What does this fold into?
Amino acid sequence: MVTREHEDVAAARAVAETVTDPELPMLTLADLGVLREVDLAEDGAVEVTVTPTYSGCPALAEMRTDLRRRLAEAGYPRVRVHTVLSPPWSSSWITERGRRKLAEHGVHPPDDSASGDQGGAGGPVPLTLEPPRRRIRCPRCGCPDTERTSEFGATACKALYRCLGCREPFEYFKEI
Amino acid sequence: MSFDNAYEAVTEAQPDGDTRWAFGTGFVDPLDGVDTTVPAGVDRDGLATYCLMLGDDALVLSHRLSEWTTRAHELEDEVALANIALDLLGQARMLLSRAASVAGDGADEDSLAYFRDEREFRNVRLVELPRGDFGRCVAGLLVFSTWRLAVLSRLTRSADPVLAAVAAKGVKEVTYHRDYAARWAVRLGDGTEYSARRLHQGFADVLPFVPELFTPHELERELARQEVAVDPAPLRPEFDEVLRTVCTTAGTELPEVSTVGTLAGGAGRHGVHTEHLGYLLAEMQSLARSDPEARW
It folds into this structure.
């Protein structure tokens, strides 16, 4: 039997999952993989756990505020937002739905197979002098002939590309 | 929700009392909600100072790199340098917050960034050198990020879980920074005679400050014994190997330079700095000092 409390947790989670990323408004925090947990505390407060994408990403402060506001509007006046740093977020946390929505909005989703060995075991990180080999098709016309214009874009998480078929520039969500 | 003008929208009171400005809220503590317990047996004062060292490196270089905004040769590189500065600022915020919470003396990330004087900064001197030209920027960023990446990749095993987590995030970011600098070093070194000369001069300016990076402060050695910090000294061969690979690919050789002196053995980690840091801090701290109640 589903208890009232379980229903409440599920309902609170459903509300938290609708909050969108301020810089990528086509993605919810759940799509982006930064919403780690939603729970109800003994005192009735909603406990939300999030993790930052990049250390300096200014969107995190906005996300916390939006979570509090959206939950308050949905009838949860007491909200505690916790941050966790470990395990660190990586682009592989973006859900399939998130990837589809990025592509629909002209942002190429991350090709996680292109991420190199980042010395996870605490050893040296290999130097890569060649640009990363990514399989990238133009998200607008599907043309496989694309070129990277900059490894850094308008937000910390994106690189800039250009399609050599339709000549349109587009953004790529970096694998990290 | 609708507003008559943009100002109303950004100043709208939030449920948690924050006012909205630019990016959402007044900056909240970046470690707010993170379990910041200090593990048993770890020297608190030492840990706080070590966090300041790594945090000040990132903060000061972040400020220097931000000076490239409106000054880079191409929009793409301006954006790249601003992104790198932002990553470093994020690392600085977490490290200064960690320093403040461990010390527990009422300081916070803002008071540490804006209300400490030059002698209280613990950054290595490399990061405070003037911006210089793009060749100098590439040489400096390559040296810094190669060194920092070597340190952070080991720090992921720190006995302090917060330092380990900050390092794990930083490794991914600094890998991008080092690759950016390394690819530009190859382009400049392997470009024209003129671009190679500018890169060479850049290395000549920054290499005198390299030995300091691998000379641990006594505190770094002590904390490394406690498996909290990383002793940078054994990482020198790895650093040299990366620079050798870049230079070989770029068809350039590193200039012979003399090491810059210390003050009775003291350098950046002891609070002994070049004349450039004071000017940098004067600019970085002026707003906060003239209006201590300001929020941003």
Notes: Chain A has a mean pLDDT of 89.
